[in-house]
Amino acid sequence: MKYVITGSTGNISKPLATTLTSAGHDVTVISSNESKKSEIESVGAKPAIGNILDVDFLTQIFSGADAVYVMIPPNFVVTDWRGYQHQAADTYVAAIEKTGIKNVVQLSSIGAHMGNGAGPIDGLAYFEKKLDDLQNVNVKKLRPSYFFTNFYTMVDLIKNAEILGSNMGTANQKIVLTHPNDIAAAAAKYLLDLDFTGQSISYVSSDIRSFSEIAAALGNAIGKPNLPWVSFTDEEALQGMLGADVPEALAKDYQQMGKSIREGRIEADYHQRNEYPHGKVKLEDFAKEFALAFRN
């Protein structure tokens, strides 16, 4: 089988490519960074260096593939984040149509059911809807929950203020969590089996824990057993991100996402479908990874 993987050597795309090449398949990994070529080759895949916003480039690389894994890579230098997401989605769909790809696995997100009001997830909802318009294409939309690895962004908060916190909820509120390895495993299963037809959605999650449990687990792992979870107001969250030089438009998007998590709107469809964690990586497992990153 011939697969094309987007996302370069990211924390989902690299293990995904490794799984596919280990199974003996022909795998091409798209990256915008020339320096990633050797890392891509080290897992047995072929590098394709180019811009995912270039429909001619994507069409060339997608041609002849049995299936593609598509995701919108983060791009923190753009001033119009939503415009970038829409352009990436439009380009992917155009390339899929031009090449006649029949099987697509898309990295979406929990909260994409909202369509509006979920911050940066709204761009992934747009992508889902654009894929809906494809004819005679099988599309599996993966909706992982909040990434464990997002807590790495709070390392400085711990070091400088001895707290964990955000506007996502109070200490006793629970949040659905996912590890990138579990997302990669889910994507690999769908790509290897190709047993999905039409347009379908699958949630990916690893654990469900309260913010106080998260603070305790991460705190214990780094030698701070009394690390508290502090619930920020929306304005405090926004000002904190602006103070960390996050672009204003993106900061407002993440403020909105945190608010929607706190209000239960982002996870509503997950719970209405009676979903539950299938992933292998639990909070205590991630805490060990977090401790290594914290000390480096």
| Neighbour order of strands in the largest sheet | 3-2-1-4-5-6-10
CA-atom Rg in angstroms: 19 Å
Query: In whole angstroms, how far apart are the ends?
Result: 40 Å
How does the major sheet shape up?
7 strands, parallel
CATH top level class name of the largest domain: Alpha Beta
- What's the overall average pLDDT, rounded? 97
Low-confidence segments: none
* Number of strand segments: 12
Annotated CATH homologous superfamily of the largest domain:
NAD(P)-binding Rossmann-like Domain
The secondary structure category is alpha/beta
Strand content: 15-25%
List the domain count as a whole number: 2
Secondary-structure topology with pairs:
Blueprint: E1 2-5, H1 13-22, E2 26-31, H2 37-42, E3 46-49, H3 55-62, E4 67-70, H4 81-99, E5 103-107, H5 121-132, E6 138-144, E7 146-147, H6 155-161, E8 164-166, E9 174-178, H7 180-193, E10 199-204, E11 207-210, H8 211-221, E12 229-231, H9 234-243, H10 248-262, H11 268-272, H12 283-295
Helix pairs in contact: 1-7, 3-4, 4-5, 8-12, 9-10
Short synopsis of the structure:
The chain is an alpha/beta fold. The chain is 44% helix and 18% strand.
Describe this entry's structure for a reader.
- The longest helix has 19 residues, at 81-99.
- The chain is an alpha/beta fold and 296 residues long.
- Helix 4 packs parallel to helix 5 and helix 8 packs across helix 12 (283-295).
- The protein has helices at residues 13-22, 37-42, 55-62, 81-99, 121-132, 155-161, 180-193, 211-221, 234-243, 248-262, 268-272, 283-295, and strands spanning 2-5, 26-31, 46-49, 67-70, 103-107, 138-144, 146-147, 164-166, 174-178, 199-204, 207-210, 229-231.
- The protein folds into two domains: 2-144 and 178-204, 3-Layer(aba) Sandwich (Rossmann fold); 154-158 and 164-173 and 207-295, Alpha-Beta Complex (UDP-galactose 4-epimerase, domain 1), CATH 3.90.25.
- A seven-stranded parallel beta sheet has the order 3-2-1-4-5-6-10, with helices on both faces. A three-stranded mixed beta sheet has the order 7-9-11.
